[in-house]
Design brief:
- By secondary structure, the chain is of the alpha+beta class.
- The chain has two domains: 48 residues, no CATH class; 69 residues, Dihydrofolate Reductase, subunit A.
- It is built from two helices and seven strands.
- The strands form three sheets. The protein has a three-stranded antiparallel β-sheet, with no helix packed on it. The protein has a two-stranded antiparallel ribbon with strand order 1-2.
């Protein structure tokens, strides 16, 4: 879990890779995407899923080589500025950057698998 709100997370270095983390109800909490990816790489995880929020998506998209993108076709009611709402950032795929591997269309939403070209 990446949380910038938990500022008291301890930092340390392991094998020259800067890692921070603390156990939080059985989950490792880190304060940046960089630390999370370093930790996952060290643990030899092949696939990482980013599930929000908006700022984390913005940081992760340039690093991604694959994307599973769900588009919901539904009117979203207006919310006041005081509500904490996060959205997937406005993102436009260019044919020279991403290839659509598969598309599935359902009632009210669609699901696409995209792969970065030369990723």
């Amino acid at each position: 879990m990446v949380s910038r709100a938990l500022s008291e997370v301890d930092s340390y270095s392991a094998n020259g890779v800067a890692i921070n983390g603390v156990d939080f109800f059985g989950h490792t909490v880190v304060t940046s995407l960089e630390f999370a990816l370093a930790r996952l790489k060290k643990a030899k995880h092949d696939e990482v899923f980013i599930i929000g929020g908006e700022r984390l998506y913005q940081e992760a998209i340039p690093l991604a080589d694959k994307m599973y993108l769900t588009t919901v076709r539904k009117d979203i009611p207006e919310v006041s500025d005081s509500d904490e709402v996060a959205y997937f950032p406005i993102w436009v795929s260019t044919p020279s950057e991403w290839d659509t591997v598969s598309t599935e269309v359902f009632d009210g939403y669609s699901f696409k698998e995209l792969e970065r070209i030369n990723g």
